[in-house]
């Protein structure tokens, strides 16, 4: 990560990483979505989707933000049609609502290093321009102490306010955010379908989902991908990337 990217994540709790996927990659995945029967999470939809587990442009961000033992916790897709809603704002270190906390929704900084609990890399397969809806958040709320004071009408997108933003995204962009950030899904207003693939990661010692990956369902996997799909563990867990490669 660049120094400016670290500044942005620390300041706002999310980051738009531009042009991670090529036009050809986006087209290939959209073609599979349109023309094949899909079962299970996106990571099981075929080789192009399996490559997203440890995409070479994204893995360095994951290691910087979640540590060298990062693991894929779970993944799913969000498709939305014009006029469709998907729920209000949620998340945050206390779950973003009375009744928290969510034990793995956290953000910490110490001695120049950022660390996060559950985080999301959202691969966008369709444009989401300003005003289209979809992902929205309250920048900086991953460090707020007053999340329970957010009015319910703001949480449900019934009252627009300057502190809730919907970042503009292009097809091929990846949106990173920490679950410690208050976020949600605005109603989709564009005429084309929203297509987002959410790959959610945890530090190697923790999990949000209790359903761990069965690598036998994935066919051929690289050793690195196998390490990414391991269940949580403490102590003997291998680094995702070998130490010599991290140093290089």
Query: How would you characterize the largest beta sheet?
Result: 5 strands, antiparallel
Strand order within the widest beta sheet: 1-7-5-9-2
What's the CATH H-level superfamily name? q2cbj1_9rhob like domain
User: From the coordinates shown, what is the CATH architecture?
Assistant: Sandwich
Helix content: 10-25%
Radius of gyration: 18 Å
Q: Give me the number of helical elements.
A: 7
Layout of strands and helices, then pairs:
Elements lengths: L2 H10 L1 E4 L5 H13 L11 H4 L8 H8 L4 E10 L26 E4 L2 E4 L2 E6 L9 E4 L14 H4 L18 E5 L4 E4 L7 E9 L20 H6 L14 H5 L1
Antiparallel strand pairs: 1-7, 2-9, 3-4, 5-7, 5-9, 6-8
Report on this structure:
It contains seven helices and nine strands, in the order αβαααβββββαβββαα. The protein starts with a helix and ends with a helix. The strands form three sheets. Strands 1-7-5-9-2 form a five-stranded antiparallel beta sheet. Strands 3-4 form a two-stranded antiparallel ribbon. It has a two-stranded antiparallel ribbon with strand order 6-8. With 248 residues, it is of the alpha+beta class. It has helices at residues 3-12, 23-35, 47-50, 59-66, 152-155, 223-228, 243-247, and strands spanning 14-17, 71-80, 107-110, 113-116, 119-124, 134-137, 174-178, 183-186, 194-202. The protein is globular and about 50 Å long. The protein has one domain (3-247): q2cbj1_9rhob like domain (Jelly Rolls).
Summarize the structure.
With 248 residues, the protein is α+β, with helices and mostly antiparallel strands. The chain has helices spanning 3-12, 23-35, 47-50, 59-66, 152-155, 223-228, 243-247; strands at 14-17, 71-80, 107-110, 113-116, 119-124, 134-137, 174-178, 183-186, 194-202. It is built from 7 helices and 9 strands; from the N terminus they run H-E-H-H-H-E-E-E-E-E-H-E-E-E-H-H.
């Amino acid at each position: 990560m660049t120094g400016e990217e670290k500044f942005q994540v620390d300041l706002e709790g999310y980051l738009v990483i531009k042009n991670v996927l090529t036009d050809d990659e986006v087209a290939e995945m959209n073609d599979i979505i349109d023309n094949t029967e899909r079962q299970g999470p996106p990571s099981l939809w075929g080789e192009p989707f399996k490559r997203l587990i440890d995409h070479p442009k994204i893995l360095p961000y994951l290691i910087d933000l979640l540590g060298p033992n990062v693991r894929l916790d779970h993944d799913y897709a969000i498709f939305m049609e014009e006029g469709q809603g998907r729920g209000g704002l949620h998340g945050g270190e206390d779950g973003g609502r009375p009744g928290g906390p969510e034990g793995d929704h956290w953000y910490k900084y110490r001695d120049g290093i950022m660390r996060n609990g559950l985080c999301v890399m959202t691969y966008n397969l369709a444009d989401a321009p300003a005003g289209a809806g979809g992902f929205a958040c309250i920048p900086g709320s991953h460090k707020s102490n007053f999340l329970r004071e957010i009015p319910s009408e703001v949480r449900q997108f019934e009252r627009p306010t300057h502190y809730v933003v919907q970042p503009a995204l292009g097809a091929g962009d990846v949106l990173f955010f920490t679950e410690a950030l208050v976020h949600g899904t605005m109603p989709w207003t564009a005429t084309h379908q929203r297509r987002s693939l959410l790959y959610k990661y945890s530090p190697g010692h923790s999990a949000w989902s209790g359903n761990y990956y069965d690598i036998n369902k994935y066919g051929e996997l690289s050793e690195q991908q196998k390490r990414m799909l391991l269940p949580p563990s403490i102590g003997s867990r291998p680094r995702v990337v070998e130490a010599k490669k991290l140093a290089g």
